[in-house]
Amino acid sequence: MREDLSMPAAPAIDVDGWVCPMPLRDAPNIVMGHGGGGAMSGELIEHLFLPAFGAAADAGMGDSAVFAVDGTRLAFSTDSFVVKPLVFPGGSIGELAVNGTVNDLAMAGARPLVLSTAFILEEGTALSEIAHVAEALGTAASAAGVSLVTGDTKVVDAGHGDGIFINTAGIGVLDEGVDIRPERAAPGDVVMVSGDIGVHGIAVMSCREGLEFGTTVLSDTAPLAGLVSAMLDTGADLHVLRDPTRGGVAATLNEIARAAGIGVSLEETALPVPAAVRDACGLLGLDPVYVANEGKLVAFVAPADADRVLAAMRAHPLGARAAVIGTCVEEHPGMVVARTALGGTRVVDLPAGEQLPRIC
């Protein structure tokens, strides 16, 4: 009798309790919004991945996991990069692959030490293009002070990839007493951003569909560990650090507000938005607060420490345009509310998916 080698039917997933936007309920397949870092991504993780992982899952849900080995506190993070196009004004997927993981480690207060790198290459991609990306990745690693210590390469059939996808994972070490995590945000905390927002997303979008904005916007991709080190050197107790990548500043503030159970009151006029980004967003119908960044951080700092942390940020090249953009409040816990230039208020909600897909 012939053995049946067919795959067993996939178990049905019960989505009756899901509270995500309609695409998750109506579509049995992945849509682009699932990868946007917003509400749809969160629902996918909470209702599919975590239950599927079962007891093996550690639901800390941070960009980096912090743990101790023989008394040494380490941070570990991994990230994948699928940006389109591979090269854009101010950088490439190579720089993003290093800086993205380095920054996730830095947001936990860790000093990045080593990275792994894995390339998924599409058959037919020019070797010269791969070499350009690889060289950019190596240069970025040297600039960030990390070593590339292990890696992997796979090739997929033509038409089943998009040139180059990259995964990096990294390990960093934390000094004694550093405790930076979203749950530590508290009423009264001062909310800061390290510089101009929305730059990376617009730089990538400028390369798509032949769009021209009248000026060249360069990506802000950069390693932030040095800036974080300067902030820690002030002796301030930094409560929260996050790099506002997918979903921009809006998604980051919402995630922190919900994790800590506090409200965030945002001053819309205080947001440092360059004129070129504002004009491009107006043309495309986008809100800069939702546009991705790759070289900026958001910090939550106790009021007594705010001035010296802001001064330290502005003294660093990557924080020269740092600004206070809001405060933490007891009202409207789990929500971000912005005061507009006209004196009104609006809710800045967690985006469902992503305004600009595949920007990192």
From TrEMBL:
InterPro entries: HypE (IPR011854), Peptidase_A2_cat (IPR001995), PurM-like_C_dom (IPR010918), PurM-like_C_sf (IPR036676), PurM-like_N (IPR016188), PurM-like_N_sf (IPR036921). GO terms for biological process: protein maturation; proteolysis. GO terms for molecular function: aspartic-type endopeptidase activity. Residues 228-263 form the Peptidase A2 domain. PROSITE patterns: ASP_PROT_RETROV. Belongs to the HypE family. This is Hydrogenase expression/formation protein HypE. It comes from Nocardia jinanensis. The lineage of its organism: Bacteria, Bacillati, Actinomycetota, Actinomycetes, Mycobacteriales.
